[in-house]
Design a protein that fits this description.
536 residues; Dna Ligase, domain 1; 3 domains; eight-stranded antiparallel beta sheet; 17 strands; globular; binds adenosine-5'-diphosphate; TTL/TTLL_fam; TTL11 polyglutamylase
Amino acid sequence: QFPFGRRLPCDIYWHGVSFHDNDIFSGQVNKFPGMTEMVRKITLSRAVRTMQDLFPLEYNFYPRSWILPEEFPLFVDEVRMMKDSDPSWKPTFIVKPDGGCQGDGIYLIKDPSDVRLTGSSQSRPAVVQEYICKPLLVDKLKFDIRLYVLLKSLEPLEIYIAKDGLSRFCTEPYQEPTLKNLHQVFMHLTNYSLNIHSGNFIHSDNVNTGSKRTFSSILCRLSSRGADVKKLWSDIISLVIKTIIALTPELKVYYQSDIPAGKPGPTCFQILGFDILLMKNLKPMLLEVNANPSMRIEHEQELSPGVFENVPSPVDEEVKVAVIRDTLRLVDPQKKKRKDVQQHIESCKNKVDTRCNYFLCYRCQTLEHVSEANEELLDAGPADRRECDSTQSPEAGLPSLCLKQVFPKYAKQFNYLRLVDRVAALFIRFLGVKGTTKLGPTGFRTFIRNCKLSNSNFSMASVDILYIDITRRWNNMGIDHKESGMCLQAFVEAFFCLAQKKYKSLPLHEQVASLIDFCEYHLAALDEKRLVCGRG
Ligand code: ADP
């Protein structure tokens, strides 16, 4: 541990809180710049909503949400309209303060007029969300799932999901929300930090009983009741990939600002905690994403009044040790070196016929067998592993990976959703000065001009008005006043506006896709022209 920083460069930096814990110019950091900001309740809701506008069906795993205080009038209006169209609809809403955690400041309401907008600590910016009234119950209790996800790389996108997670249980039997039970946190909120204070909390001494269990133990139970557990897993994988696809555009803006391309800097990876609620019909719903999930494998036990001791928690240990171990295996810098050696061997082998005798190659002779043993291990089942000779590879004798790659493995199924990523690439191209996250008026004008978007119906004066209108509105939302200019979300809104103008009758995602193609085409032509001129 280096609480005051470390001078010598490391292979891997394991930061406690965020990317900015230190100045780093090489190696790998276990945090992405901007991740903490991205997964705050308001930012996550905004990012998912942009995707819901484009792909409403694909993104129906996130409850309908409004941002307070600015969308309060919209919230009131929409709820009134929905009630008018369906008088039998008796909704409940959950209000969650932005940046809150561990259930802090959360409350349930039946009517929009019950939102506490002024005069209390709960009046700070928040998200109000439709409350999922019919969760799946086990032993009559509500529970949620904490799944660990490794974002190994942003470009190219690489995602791994842990095969097992935690199920965190409420400590009062669940009843659908009524005015009488709305305030009963032990019935409605699954947070460990809250329920631990209930007299009913049971510390588990194995993985399938008590108030915190492994997710696999729940799956076993569901499977024995005849539930389609395979489909459930595939829905969860799809939820995770889609959520990360919603987060990546803004993450890329942060990334290029902190680690500009072409300058020395580290690469990043990050373990995320996904909180998921299963509905009665087994549909998984995303509650939130944690950038800094707790990796504690102990809990406090009160030995005698006021005397506490840390004792091991077998459930946490079972799940979390595997996640950390596999993350380190996947980002192991030695593995990359071994891969490089493997590539070297391959290239030498290919040259055997052309007179390069690879047996004479010193590097290959000494390292070839290490590299091969390692690659085999990644695919080996448990039986194969234990037979491995520990002198062969540093990974010999380790259990098989609990982290499973889901992207790029399933990229083909999800790549069509990555439209905002392409909009972000246009945004980043026109940012101009390296290290910024906001687009100035000149950058926006250059974008319009280079992509040939201005014409007699859309003058440069209208371009300026569009820029000013949208930028001012986003800056008034009080998101980030450190820099002036147009943030990515504002640019995305302007882009959608332009797309709707240009391709009137299509559905929104087709309008946007067509405009992206149009812009990319003109920019490629421009690059080509510049290249030819340069050569000339
Ligand atoms: P926090 O970061 O404070 O834990 P969460 O968004 O995870 O905030 O919400 C806390 C708990 O409230 C969740 O663990 C879950 O039990 C419950 N909860 C949150 N959102 C909903 C919802 N839309 N419907 C039903 N329960 C919810």
